[in-house]
Specification:
15-stranded parallel β-sheet, alpha/beta, about 25% helix, 22 strands, about 450 residues, binds 2-acetamido-2-deoxy-beta-D-glucopyranose, five-stranded parallel β-sheet
Length: about 450
């Protein structure tokens, strides 16, 4: 292996040789197994030691290349690394590679070269493929979508893939992609696209661009976890987004993050237990607000069987307050996390969550009128199940105090309130000590309720 420019000095070789002697009596398949757990650079360097080792490492079925790993204390030069990868791959011309991982973070490469490596791997009956690269790559949609051996596919890179009308990967169990732009090839432009993954359990897509004007159906009957983060930067009136429909009856975890430009339709949401919906909108798009409120409502409405729900809206509620006015009853909800919520919405959610145990509130409460609370009915959960209230980003203003007072006065089963003052209070004139005193002296309906304050610094 001297020819690939990997230098090794005498003392290192000797140490390695001694270590090797200890295990050189092991059977080759076991050595191969051991080697598959160490980075490929170390695995190949063992071949300096004996001919037998050369045979051992070429029987590996796991190849992990990472250009940031140190080799004898130093990162490899780009040329050295490229050379090294090519040499290793050459040995696998006739064999399959079960697991292939390529992590390129230290250099910029020739895109066509890296693409060639990937194409090569896709023809080696690869089962787990993991590629991370911060720059652009080409990837042949054809060879990717024909690689039916894939069980796990992780792609973190900028790349455009054209989607044929239908894609089917029967063995795929986990798909984790980010940075991919999906385009439709011109022949399929006006048709819907079906992605069929009968054994897929986990789907995660962050920052991908889905083709516009087209609807995508995910036929994923075994899917348990669906997570998508979509930001459509270039949207304008004339650019309509298609929908993404998810066909699964086993979904337990759902996570959405984005601006709701593109509709996500769940064909069966009844098994979802954990849901997280994070919506951030661009305030310039005032014309969209009304539609957005409706879309947000439609999405949340589907989560009526969840146990844990996180709803983080940024700049949405201020404009679309009616999102919460017609919500279903969340009959199984025990944990609820909210931010920037207004008083009315909060009350509505509490009323609709009869067995709620924990409420986590971020960044205070807006528009909470004293008289609204005074005349409000006490939510059912306050009398039977509600035990923990975590108030993070407490602003010490009238609304926030009003809420704490309402809880203390009405929640019979409350065990603990934790208040974390907002960071900005550190720079204000507000005397937090006094506020604490004030809160501690409020009448409590639950005799065993503890009120705790955390430091401003830690909030
Ligand atoms: C692959 O197989 C061909 C034909 O059997 C043979 O000539 C070649 O040496 C093999 N390559 C490797 C790397 O084993
Ligand atoms: C997907 O990949 C990202 C980046 O490697 C990782 O942080 C995330 O946990 C992965 N998601 C899943 C579901 O494995
Ligand atoms: C996508 O679906 C919507 C309704 O869900 C429909 O109005 C629209 O025509 C569909 N788009 C295409 C390209 O089929
Ligand atoms: C809106 O999107 C269309 C289609 O992508 C594009 O042709 C047009 O220039 C965009 N208009 C504006 C104002 O950005
Ligand atoms: C739901 O989320 C919680 C906390 O993040 C986690 O502990 C739990 O395993 C999740 N439930 C499922 C079904 O994945």
């Amino acid at each position: 292996m001297g020819s690939n420019g990997v230098a090794i000095d005498d003392t290192e070789a000797q140490t390695l040789a001694e270590e090797t002697d200890v295990i050189s009596t092991l059977h080759e398949s076991i050595l191969g197994l051991i080697l598959s757990f160490v980075p490929i650079i170390d695995a190949v360097s063992t071949s300096v030691l004996s001919r037998r080792w050369i045979e051992v490492w070429t029987s590996l079925s796991t190849l992990k290349f990472d250009d940031s790993l140190l080799f004898y204390g130093k990162k490899m030069q780009k040329e050295q690394f490229v050379n090294f990868v090519e040499k290793v791959l050459l040995h696998f011309t006739n064999s399959s590679i079960e697991i292939f991982s390529l992590c390129l973070t230290s250099h910029q490469y020739d895109a066509s070269q890296v693409s060639e490596w990937i194409s090569f791997i896709l023809e080696r009956r690869v089962q787990k493929l993991h590629i991370q690269y911060s720059d652009k790559l080409f990837l042949s949609s054809n060879s990717l979508f024909r690689c039916n051996s894939l069980i796990e596919l992780t792609l973190q890179m900028r790349c455009t893939l054209s989607l044929p009308v239908s894609v089917r990967l029967t063995n795929l169990q986990k798909l984790n992609i980010s940075g991919i732009k999906f385009a439709s090839d011109s022949s399929t432009y006006s048709r819907d696209i079906t992605l069929s993954f009968p054994h897929l359990k986990v789907f995660e897509a962050r920052g991908c661009e889905w083709s516009t004007m087209q609807n995508i159906s995910l036929q994923v009957p075994s899917l348990e976890r669906f997570s998508i983060a979509i930001w459509n930067h270039h949207s304008n009136e004339s650019c309509k987004y298609g929908t993404i429909k998810v066909y699964s009856q086993r979904l337990t975890d759902f996570s959405y993050e984005g601006d709701l430009e593109q509709d996500i339709i769940l064909c069966d949401s009844s098994s979802i237990r954990n849901a997280s919906v994070v919506i951030v909108i661009d305030e310039d798009k005032k014309d969209r607000i009304e539609k957005l409120g409706f879309q947000a409502y439609n999405l949340i409405r589907q989560m009526d069987e969840v146990k844990r729900l996180k709803l983080l809206f940024y700049k949405v509620l201020r404009h679309a307050k009616y999102i919460f006015t017609n919500l279903p009853i969340f009959g199984s909800l025990v944990y609820l996390q909210l931010n920037e919520v207004n008083g009315e919405a909060l009350l509505q959610l509490l009323h609709n969550s009869p067995i709620l145990n924990t409420l986590v509130l971020l960044n205070g409460v807006a528009d909470l009128q004293k008289d609204v609370l005074a005349s409000a009915m006490v939510p059912h959960c306050f009398l039977s199940s509600f035990k923990v209230f975590q108030f993070k980003g407490f602003n010490a203003n009238e609304h926030d105090l009003c809420l704490v007072k309402f809880m203390l006065a009405n929640a019979e089963t409350l065990e603990k309130i934790t208040i974390s003052p907002a960071f900005w209070l550190r720079y204000s004139d507000i005397d937090i000590g006094k506020v604490k005193e004030q809160i501690l002296s409020l009448p409590k309906c639950s005799s065993f309720c503890v009120v705790e304050f955390s430091d401003i610094a830690s909030s």
